[in-house]
Amino acid sequence: MPLGLYISVPFCRTKCSYCNFASDVFSKSAYENYVARLLEDIASSRKLASELGCALDDAADSIYFGGGTPSILDAPQLLRIVTALHAQFAVTPDAEITVECAPGTLTPPLIETLLQCGVNRVSLGVQSFVDREAQAVGRLHKRSTVLNDIARLRQAGLRNINIDLIAGLPHQTAESWAFSVSETIVTGVPHVSVYMLEIDDDSRLGRELIAGGARYHAHFVPDDDATADFYQQACEMLASAGIAQYEISNFARTAAQLQNNESRHNLKYWTRQPYLGFGVDAHSMLELPVWGRAPSRACPERSRRGPRQVRCWLDGVEELGSCPWPQQLWTRDGR
Amino acid sequence: MAVDSIEANHHQAVRFATPDSLDAYMNRAPHTVTPVSAQAAIEEGFFLGLRLNRGIDLERLSTEFNPDAVAVWESAIQQCLREGLLEQEGATVRLTARGRLLSNEVFARFLAEEKVGTGHVNPR
User: Fold this and answer.
1) Where are the alpha helices (DSSP H) in B2-68?
2) Domain ranges (residues) in chain B
3) Count of H helices and E strands in chain A?
4) Pick from B11, B17, B31: which is nearest to A288 by CB?
5) Potential cystine with B42: which of A40, A111, B65, B91 (Cβ 3.0-4.6 Å)?
6) B16 → closest Cβ in A52, A271, A306
7) How many CA atoms lie within 13 A of A29 on its CB side?
Protein backbone atom coordinates (compact mmCIF):
# COMPACT_ATOMS: atom_id res chain seq x y z
CA MET A 1 0.00 0.00 0.00
CA PRO A 2 1.50 3.39 -0.95
CA LEU A 3 2.87 5.40 1.91
CA GLY A 4 1.99 8.84 3.15
CA LEU A 5 5.06 10.90 4.02
CA TYR A 6 4.93 13.65 6.62
CA ILE A 7 7.60 16.30 7.10
CA SER A 8 7.49 18.32 10.32
CA VAL A 9 8.86 21.85 10.20
CA PRO A 10 8.73 23.21 13.75
CA PHE A 11 9.61 26.83 12.99
CA CYS A 12 7.29 29.84 13.11
CA ARG A 13 7.71 33.58 12.76
CA THR A 14 5.60 33.99 15.90
CA LYS A 15 4.07 31.53 18.32
CA CYS A 16 0.27 31.69 18.36
CA SER A 17 -1.13 32.08 21.86
CA TYR A 18 -3.28 28.92 21.69
CA CYS A 19 -0.55 26.70 20.26
CA ASN A 20 1.03 23.94 22.28
CA PHE A 21 2.57 22.05 19.36
CA ALA A 22 6.26 21.31 19.18
CA SER A 23 6.90 24.48 17.22
CA ASP A 24 8.44 27.79 18.17
CA VAL A 25 10.42 30.79 17.03
CA PHE A 26 14.06 29.95 16.29
CA SER A 27 16.82 31.83 14.53
CA LYS A 28 17.23 31.12 10.83
CA SER A 29 20.58 29.50 11.52
CA ALA A 30 18.72 26.58 13.10
CA TYR A 31 16.85 25.86 9.88
CA GLU A 32 19.86 24.61 7.95
CA ASN A 33 20.98 22.19 10.66
CA TYR A 34 17.44 20.92 10.95
CA VAL A 35 17.14 20.28 7.23
CA ALA A 36 20.44 18.39 7.31
CA ARG A 37 19.09 16.24 10.13
CA LEU A 38 15.85 15.64 8.23
CA LEU A 39 17.80 14.48 5.20
CA GLU A 40 19.68 11.97 7.36
CA ASP A 41 16.40 10.59 8.67
CA ILE A 42 14.92 10.29 5.21
CA ALA A 43 18.03 8.51 3.95
CA SER A 44 17.95 6.02 6.84
CA SER A 45 14.21 5.33 6.78
CA ARG A 46 14.55 1.92 5.15
CA LYS A 47 17.14 0.88 7.72
CA LEU A 48 14.82 1.93 10.55
CA ALA A 49 11.86 0.08 9.05
CA SER A 50 14.01 -3.01 8.65
CA GLU A 51 15.16 -2.82 12.27
CA LEU A 52 11.54 -2.66 13.36
CA GLY A 53 10.66 -5.58 11.10
CA CYS A 54 8.11 -3.43 9.27
CA ALA A 55 6.90 -3.58 5.70
CA LEU A 56 7.84 -0.45 3.78
CA ASP A 57 6.36 0.17 0.36
CA ASP A 58 8.50 1.84 -2.26
CA ALA A 59 5.61 3.93 -3.47
CA ALA A 60 4.35 7.09 -1.78
CA ASP A 61 1.18 8.77 -2.96
CA SER A 62 1.04 11.66 -0.50
CA ILE A 63 3.53 14.07 1.00
CA TYR A 64 2.50 16.55 3.67
CA PHE A 65 4.65 19.38 4.99
CA GLY A 66 3.19 20.41 8.34
CA GLY A 67 4.27 22.61 11.16
CA GLY A 68 4.99 25.00 12.47
CA THR A 69 5.25 26.91 9.27
CA PRO A 70 6.91 24.91 6.48
CA SER A 71 6.76 27.92 4.18
CA ILE A 72 9.31 29.58 6.44
CA LEU A 73 12.08 27.47 4.86
CA ASP A 74 13.87 28.92 1.86
CA ALA A 75 13.65 27.54 -1.66
CA PRO A 76 16.86 25.45 -1.67
CA GLN A 77 15.93 23.88 1.67
CA LEU A 78 12.47 22.83 0.48
CA LEU A 79 13.91 21.52 -2.78
CA ARG A 80 16.54 19.45 -0.97
CA ILE A 81 13.89 17.80 1.20
CA VAL A 82 11.69 16.95 -1.77
CA THR A 83 14.68 15.65 -3.73
CA ALA A 84 15.62 13.42 -0.80
CA LEU A 85 12.09 12.01 -0.65
CA HIS A 86 12.16 11.24 -4.36
CA ALA A 87 15.53 9.53 -3.92
CA GLN A 88 14.13 7.16 -1.29
CA PHE A 89 10.56 6.62 -2.48
CA ALA A 90 8.75 6.21 -5.76
CA VAL A 91 6.50 9.22 -5.48
CA THR A 92 3.54 8.45 -7.73
CA PRO A 93 2.81 10.90 -10.56
CA ASP A 94 -0.59 11.68 -9.07
CA ALA A 95 0.72 12.08 -5.50
CA GLU A 96 -1.01 14.67 -3.35
CA ILE A 97 1.72 17.04 -2.15
CA THR A 98 0.54 19.50 0.49
CA VAL A 99 2.35 22.36 2.20
CA GLU A 100 0.90 24.20 5.19
CA CYS A 101 1.48 27.92 4.73
CA ALA A 102 0.95 30.91 6.96
CA PRO A 103 -0.87 33.64 5.02
CA GLY A 104 1.59 36.37 4.16
CA THR A 105 4.54 34.04 3.62
CA LEU A 106 3.60 33.16 0.03
CA THR A 107 6.02 35.36 -1.87
CA PRO A 108 6.29 34.90 -5.67
CA PRO A 109 9.66 33.06 -5.30
CA LEU A 110 8.12 30.72 -2.72
CA ILE A 111 5.16 29.93 -4.98
CA GLU A 112 7.63 29.23 -7.78
CA THR A 113 9.55 26.89 -5.45
CA LEU A 114 6.37 25.07 -4.43
CA LEU A 115 5.63 24.40 -8.08
CA GLN A 116 9.17 23.14 -8.64
CA CYS A 117 8.67 20.78 -5.72
CA GLY A 118 5.52 19.38 -7.31
CA VAL A 119 3.28 20.85 -4.63
CA ASN A 120 -0.34 20.64 -5.75
CA ARG A 121 -2.18 21.46 -2.52
CA VAL A 122 -1.74 24.37 -0.10
CA SER A 123 -3.25 24.53 3.37
CA LEU A 124 -3.64 28.06 4.69
CA GLY A 125 -3.74 28.62 8.46
CA VAL A 126 -6.32 31.40 8.31
CA GLN A 127 -8.18 30.67 11.57
CA SER A 128 -10.34 33.80 11.23
CA PHE A 129 -11.21 36.34 8.54
CA VAL A 130 -11.79 38.94 11.26
CA ASP A 131 -8.54 40.88 11.65
CA ARG A 132 -9.05 41.60 15.33
CA GLU A 133 -9.51 37.90 16.15
CA ALA A 134 -6.49 36.81 14.12
CA GLN A 135 -4.35 39.51 15.69
CA ALA A 136 -5.50 38.65 19.23
CA VAL A 137 -4.00 35.15 19.00
CA GLY A 138 -0.77 36.29 17.36
CA ARG A 139 -1.48 35.70 13.68
CA LEU A 140 0.38 38.19 11.50
CA HIS A 141 -2.02 38.32 8.56
CA LYS A 142 -5.18 40.20 7.73
CA ARG A 143 -8.22 39.17 5.71
CA SER A 144 -6.84 40.99 2.67
CA THR A 145 -3.58 39.02 2.96
CA VAL A 146 -5.45 35.74 2.71
CA LEU A 147 -7.51 36.84 -0.27
CA ASN A 148 -4.38 38.04 -2.08
CA ASP A 149 -2.60 34.76 -1.35
CA ILE A 150 -5.48 32.70 -2.73
CA ALA A 151 -5.60 34.82 -5.88
CA ARG A 152 -1.87 34.46 -6.45
CA LEU A 153 -1.91 30.71 -5.80
CA ARG A 154 -4.68 30.30 -8.35
CA GLN A 155 -2.87 32.47 -10.84
CA ALA A 156 0.09 30.10 -10.48
CA GLY A 157 -2.17 27.10 -11.10
CA LEU A 158 -2.45 25.97 -7.47
CA ARG A 159 -6.20 25.63 -7.04
CA ASN A 160 -6.38 22.83 -4.47
CA ILE A 161 -6.44 25.01 -1.36
CA ASN A 162 -7.54 24.30 2.20
CA ILE A 163 -8.54 26.94 4.72
CA ASP A 164 -8.21 26.20 8.44
CA LEU A 165 -10.69 27.95 10.73
CA ILE A 166 -10.87 27.90 14.54
CA ALA A 167 -14.16 28.23 16.38
CA GLY A 168 -13.85 29.76 19.84
CA LEU A 169 -11.12 32.37 19.36
CA PRO A 170 -11.01 35.36 21.73
CA HIS A 171 -13.54 38.06 20.79
CA GLN A 172 -15.43 35.71 18.45
CA THR A 173 -19.20 36.14 18.31
CA ALA A 174 -21.91 34.31 16.37
CA GLU A 175 -21.89 37.17 13.86
CA SER A 176 -18.12 37.36 13.44
CA TRP A 177 -17.90 33.58 13.10
CA ALA A 178 -20.62 33.58 10.44
CA PHE A 179 -18.57 36.22 8.62
CA SER A 180 -15.43 34.01 8.67
CA VAL A 181 -17.35 30.98 7.40
CA SER A 182 -19.09 33.05 4.71
CA GLU A 183 -15.82 34.52 3.55
CA THR A 184 -14.36 31.01 3.36
CA ILE A 185 -17.27 29.83 1.23
CA VAL A 186 -17.01 32.85 -1.07
CA THR A 187 -13.35 32.16 -1.79
CA GLY A 188 -14.46 28.94 -3.50
CA VAL A 189 -11.69 26.82 -1.96
CA PRO A 190 -12.37 23.09 -2.31
CA HIS A 191 -11.48 22.08 1.27
CA VAL A 192 -12.12 23.54 4.73
CA SER A 193 -11.02 22.38 8.19
CA VAL A 194 -12.93 23.63 11.24
CA TYR A 195 -11.47 23.06 14.68
CA MET A 196 -13.04 23.89 18.02
CA LEU A 197 -10.50 25.67 20.19
CA GLU A 198 -9.34 23.50 23.06
CA ILE A 199 -7.17 25.52 25.39
CA ASP A 200 -4.19 23.61 26.67
CA ASP A 201 -3.08 24.65 30.14
CA ASP A 202 0.50 24.85 28.89
CA SER A 203 -0.25 27.27 26.07
CA ARG A 204 0.13 30.97 26.76
CA LEU A 205 -3.61 31.39 26.43
CA GLY A 206 -4.17 28.58 28.90
CA ARG A 207 -1.69 29.98 31.41
CA GLU A 208 -3.32 33.40 31.22
CA LEU A 209 -6.73 31.85 31.75
CA ILE A 210 -5.45 30.23 34.93
CA ALA A 211 -3.18 32.95 36.28
CA GLY A 212 -4.96 36.02 34.95
CA GLY A 213 -3.72 38.81 32.73
CA ALA A 214 -4.79 40.63 29.61
CA ARG A 215 -2.02 40.12 27.08
CA TYR A 216 -3.53 37.14 25.24
CA HIS A 217 -7.21 38.10 25.55
CA ALA A 218 -7.93 34.89 27.46
CA HIS A 219 -10.97 36.34 29.14
CA PHE A 220 -12.58 37.06 25.79
CA VAL A 221 -12.65 33.39 24.83
CA PRO A 222 -16.26 32.29 24.18
CA ASP A 223 -17.60 29.63 26.52
CA ASP A 224 -17.83 25.97 25.47
CA ASP A 225 -21.51 26.17 24.57
CA ALA A 226 -20.92 29.13 22.28
CA THR A 227 -17.99 27.37 20.63
CA ALA A 228 -20.13 24.26 20.07
CA ASP A 229 -22.81 26.46 18.51
CA PHE A 230 -20.20 28.00 16.19
CA TYR A 231 -19.12 24.55 15.08
CA GLN A 232 -22.71 23.50 14.33
CA GLN A 233 -23.26 26.78 12.52
CA ALA A 234 -20.23 26.10 10.32
CA CYS A 235 -21.42 22.55 9.55
CA GLU A 236 -24.78 23.90 8.41
CA MET A 237 -23.39 26.82 6.38
CA LEU A 238 -20.79 24.68 4.63
CA ALA A 239 -23.34 21.94 3.85
CA SER A 240 -25.68 24.53 2.35
CA ALA A 241 -22.82 25.72 0.16
CA GLY A 242 -22.11 22.20 -1.16
CA ILE A 243 -19.06 21.67 1.03
CA ALA A 244 -19.81 18.31 2.59
CA GLN A 245 -18.48 17.16 5.91
CA TYR A 246 -16.53 13.92 5.60
CA GLU A 247 -14.76 13.91 8.98
CA ILE A 248 -15.36 15.57 12.34
CA SER A 249 -13.25 18.59 11.41
CA ASN A 250 -13.01 18.34 7.63
CA PHE A 251 -15.18 19.39 4.74
CA ALA A 252 -14.73 19.12 0.98
CA ARG A 253 -16.65 20.30 -2.04
CA THR A 254 -18.47 17.30 -3.41
CA ALA A 255 -17.44 15.35 -6.48
CA ALA A 256 -20.34 16.66 -8.52
CA GLN A 257 -18.77 20.10 -8.47
CA LEU A 258 -15.10 19.24 -8.61
CA GLN A 259 -12.92 16.17 -8.34
CA ASN A 260 -12.61 14.33 -5.03
CA ASN A 261 -11.29 17.02 -2.76
CA GLU A 262 -10.94 15.03 0.43
CA SER A 263 -7.43 15.08 1.87
CA ARG A 264 -5.73 11.90 0.71
CA HIS A 265 -2.96 12.28 3.26
CA ASN A 266 -5.19 12.79 6.28
CA LEU A 267 -7.46 9.94 5.20
CA LYS A 268 -4.48 7.65 5.69
CA TYR A 269 -4.51 8.45 9.40
CA TRP A 270 -8.23 7.75 9.76
CA THR A 271 -8.21 4.56 7.71
CA ARG A 272 -5.01 3.09 9.20
CA GLN A 273 -2.94 3.19 6.06
CA PRO A 274 0.83 3.28 6.51
CA TYR A 275 2.63 6.58 6.90
CA LEU A 276 6.10 7.75 7.78
CA GLY A 277 6.89 10.99 9.57
CA PHE A 278 10.19 12.86 9.58
CA GLY A 279 11.34 15.64 11.89
CA VAL A 280 10.41 16.79 15.38
CA ASP A 281 7.33 15.14 16.92
CA ALA A 282 6.67 13.17 13.75
CA HIS A 283 4.58 10.03 14.03
CA SER A 284 4.70 6.93 11.88
CA MET A 285 2.63 3.79 11.53
CA LEU A 286 3.91 0.86 9.51
CA GLU A 287 2.37 -2.55 9.18
CA LEU A 288 4.21 -5.69 10.08
CA PRO A 289 4.37 -8.05 7.13
CA VAL A 290 1.84 -10.87 7.44
CA TRP A 291 4.68 -13.36 7.66
CA GLY A 292 6.17 -11.33 10.51
CA ARG A 293 3.09 -11.16 12.72
CA ALA A 294 3.47 -14.62 14.21
CA PRO A 295 7.11 -15.19 14.89
CA SER A 296 7.71 -18.70 16.12
CA ARG A 297 10.66 -20.38 14.45
CA ALA A 298 14.14 -19.45 15.53
CA CYS A 299 12.79 -17.55 18.51
CA PRO A 300 14.67 -18.53 21.64
CA GLU A 301 11.37 -18.46 23.49
CA ARG A 302 9.52 -20.53 20.93
CA SER A 303 8.73 -23.38 23.25
CA ARG A 304 6.85 -21.01 25.53
CA ARG A 305 3.42 -19.51 25.09
CA GLY A 306 2.65 -16.81 22.54
CA PRO A 307 2.53 -13.84 24.89
CA ARG A 308 6.02 -14.63 26.09
CA GLN A 309 7.21 -14.60 22.49
CA VAL A 310 5.59 -11.25 21.90
CA ARG A 311 7.21 -9.84 25.00
CA CYS A 312 10.56 -11.11 23.81
CA TRP A 313 10.03 -9.32 20.51
CA LEU A 314 8.93 -6.10 22.25
CA ASP A 315 12.03 -6.09 24.40
CA GLY A 316 14.01 -6.12 21.19
CA VAL A 317 12.27 -3.42 19.24
CA GLU A 318 12.14 -1.00 22.11
CA GLU A 319 15.87 -0.74 21.82
CA LEU A 320 16.20 -0.19 18.12
CA GLY A 321 18.70 -2.37 16.42
CA SER A 322 19.03 -4.74 19.30
CA CYS A 323 16.32 -7.20 18.37
CA PRO A 324 17.42 -10.48 19.84
CA TRP A 325 15.91 -12.45 17.00
CA PRO A 326 17.71 -13.09 13.74
CA GLN A 327 16.69 -10.66 11.00
CA GLN A 328 15.66 -13.54 8.73
CA LEU A 329 12.68 -14.04 10.99
CA TRP A 330 11.03 -11.33 8.98
CA THR A 331 11.68 -12.72 5.54
CA ARG A 332 8.80 -13.45 3.23
CA ASP A 333 9.00 -17.23 3.49
CA GLY A 334 8.55 -17.08 7.23
CA ARG A 335 11.89 -18.52 8.24
CA MET B 1 -13.51 -11.24 25.56
CA ALA B 2 -11.14 -13.27 27.64
CA VAL B 3 -7.81 -11.75 28.59
CA ASP B 4 -5.98 -14.74 27.15
CA SER B 5 -7.44 -14.27 23.71
CA ILE B 6 -6.28 -10.64 23.70
CA GLU B 7 -2.80 -11.49 24.78
CA ALA B 8 -2.51 -14.28 22.26
CA ASN B 9 -3.20 -11.92 19.38
CA HIS B 10 -0.20 -11.15 17.27
CA HIS B 11 1.01 -7.66 16.55
CA GLN B 12 -0.26 -6.05 13.39
CA ALA B 13 1.71 -2.86 13.11
CA VAL B 14 4.19 -0.60 14.83
CA ARG B 15 3.71 3.04 15.69
CA PHE B 16 6.80 5.12 16.35
CA ALA B 17 7.46 8.77 16.97
CA THR B 18 10.37 11.15 17.14
CA PRO B 19 10.96 13.34 20.24
CA ASP B 20 8.79 16.42 20.61
CA SER B 21 11.63 18.79 21.43
CA LEU B 22 13.98 20.21 18.85
CA ASP B 23 17.04 19.67 21.06
CA ALA B 24 16.23 16.03 21.65
CA TYR B 25 15.60 15.47 17.96
CA MET B 26 18.83 17.16 16.92
CA ASN B 27 20.70 15.11 19.52
CA ARG B 28 19.27 11.90 18.07
CA ALA B 29 17.14 10.87 21.01
CA PRO B 30 15.57 7.49 20.22
CA HIS B 31 12.16 6.97 18.75
CA THR B 32 9.31 5.97 21.00
CA VAL B 33 8.12 2.62 19.66
CA THR B 34 4.64 1.22 20.29
CA PRO B 35 3.72 -2.14 18.82
CA VAL B 36 0.05 -2.32 17.85
CA SER B 37 -1.57 -5.58 18.88
CA ALA B 38 -4.47 -7.04 16.95
CA GLN B 39 -6.79 -5.80 19.70
CA ALA B 40 -5.31 -2.31 19.60
CA ALA B 41 -5.65 -2.37 15.80
CA ILE B 42 -9.36 -3.09 15.98
CA GLU B 43 -9.79 -0.32 18.56
CA GLU B 44 -7.97 2.08 16.27
CA GLY B 45 -10.09 0.95 13.34
CA PHE B 46 -13.19 1.62 15.41
CA PHE B 47 -12.29 5.01 16.84
CA LEU B 48 -10.57 6.43 13.77
CA GLY B 49 -13.31 5.09 11.50
CA LEU B 50 -15.99 6.72 13.61
CA ARG B 51 -14.40 10.09 12.92
CA LEU B 52 -15.41 9.70 9.28
CA ASN B 53 -18.97 10.54 8.25
CA ARG B 54 -19.20 7.30 6.29
CA GLY B 55 -18.80 5.48 9.62
CA ILE B 56 -17.59 1.94 10.16
CA ASP B 57 -18.82 -1.41 8.94
CA LEU B 58 -18.95 -3.61 12.04
CA GLU B 59 -19.15 -6.81 10.02
CA ARG B 60 -16.07 -5.89 8.06
CA LEU B 61 -14.23 -4.98 11.25
CA SER B 62 -15.16 -8.34 12.78
CA THR B 63 -14.07 -10.22 9.67
CA GLU B 64 -10.83 -8.34 9.36
CA PHE B 65 -9.86 -8.83 12.98
CA ASN B 66 -11.64 -10.84 15.62
CA PRO B 67 -15.36 -11.70 15.54
CA ASP B 68 -15.56 -11.31 19.32
CA ALA B 69 -13.80 -7.98 19.45
CA VAL B 70 -16.76 -5.86 18.41
CA ALA B 71 -19.09 -7.60 20.85
CA VAL B 72 -17.50 -5.84 23.82
CA TRP B 73 -18.86 -2.51 22.52
CA GLU B 74 -22.39 -3.74 21.90
CA SER B 75 -24.02 -2.20 24.97
CA ALA B 76 -22.21 1.12 24.45
CA ILE B 77 -23.33 1.16 20.82
CA GLN B 78 -26.93 0.50 21.82
CA GLN B 79 -26.84 3.24 24.45
CA CYS B 80 -25.38 5.75 21.97
CA LEU B 81 -28.04 4.78 19.42
CA ARG B 82 -30.77 5.41 22.01
CA GLU B 83 -29.29 8.79 22.89
CA GLY B 84 -28.96 9.90 19.29
CA LEU B 85 -25.16 10.00 19.34
CA LEU B 86 -24.82 7.17 16.81
CA GLU B 87 -27.01 6.03 13.95
CA GLN B 88 -27.03 2.60 12.33
CA GLU B 89 -27.75 1.47 8.80
CA GLY B 90 -27.30 -2.25 8.33
CA ALA B 91 -23.90 -3.12 9.74
CA THR B 92 -22.66 0.47 9.45
CA VAL B 93 -22.62 2.76 12.46
CA ARG B 94 -21.72 6.41 12.32
CA LEU B 95 -21.79 9.46 14.53
CA THR B 96 -24.81 11.73 14.24
CA ALA B 97 -24.33 15.49 14.04
CA ARG B 98 -24.74 15.59 17.82
CA GLY B 99 -22.34 12.69 18.19
CA ARG B 100 -19.68 14.54 16.20
CA LEU B 101 -20.05 17.51 18.50
CA LEU B 102 -19.66 15.24 21.53
CA SER B 103 -17.24 12.81 19.92
CA ASN B 104 -14.76 12.80 22.78
CA GLU B 105 -17.52 11.83 25.17
CA VAL B 106 -18.67 9.07 22.81
CA PHE B 107 -15.16 7.64 22.48
CA ALA B 108 -14.70 7.76 26.26
CA ARG B 109 -17.80 5.61 26.73
CA PHE B 110 -16.37 2.89 24.52
CA LEU B 111 -13.08 2.94 26.36
CA ALA B 112 -14.90 2.68 29.69
CA GLU B 113 -16.99 -0.19 28.34
CA GLU B 114 -13.85 -1.97 27.28
CA LYS B 115 -12.31 -1.75 30.73
CA VAL B 116 -15.49 -2.99 32.39
CA GLY B 117 -15.99 -5.71 29.79
CA THR B 118 -12.54 -7.24 29.80
CA GLY B 119 -10.79 -6.06 32.90
CA HIS B 120 -7.85 -5.51 30.64
CA VAL B 121 -6.25 -2.40 29.24
CA ASN B 122 -4.12 -3.06 26.23
CA PRO B 123 -0.66 -1.62 25.93
CA ARG B 124 -0.34 0.76 22.98
Assistant:
1) 3-8, 22-26, 38-51, 58-64
2) 38-118
3) 11, 10
4) B11
5) B65
6) A52
7) 0
B42 to chain A: nearest residue by CA?
A272
Q: Which of B25, B32, B100 best probes binding to A when mutated, by most A CB atoms within 10 angstroms? A: B25
Collect all residues of chain A within an 8 Å Cβ-Cβ radius of residue B26: 33-34, 37
Helix (H) or strand (E) holding B57: strand B56-57
In terms of Cα–Cα distance, which of A315, A275, A282 is closest to B35?
Answer: A315
- DSSP strand pairing (A59-67 vs A3-9): parallel
CATH of domain B38-118: 1.10.10.920
- Does an H or E element contain B79, and which? helix B74-82
Look up the ipTM and state it.
Answer: 0.82
**CATH 3.20.20.70 domain locations along chain A:** 3-278
Per-residue pLDDT of chain A (335 residues; tens, 9 = 90+): 899 999 999 998 888 888 877 777 888 889 999 999 999 999 999 999 999 999 889 999 999 999 889 999 999 999 999 999 999 999 999 999 999 999 999 999 999 999 999 999 999 999 999 999 999 888 888 999 999 999 999 999 999 999 999 999 999 999 999 999 999 999 999 999 999 988 788 888 878 777 777 787 878 888 889 999 999 999 999 999 999 999 999 999 986 555 689 999 999 999 999 999 999 999 999 988 765 554 433 333 333 333 333 333 344 444 433 333 333 233 223 32
A284/B103 CB distance under 8 A = no
Model pTM? 0.83
For residue A96, give the nearest of A318, A267, A264, A216 by alpha carbon: A264
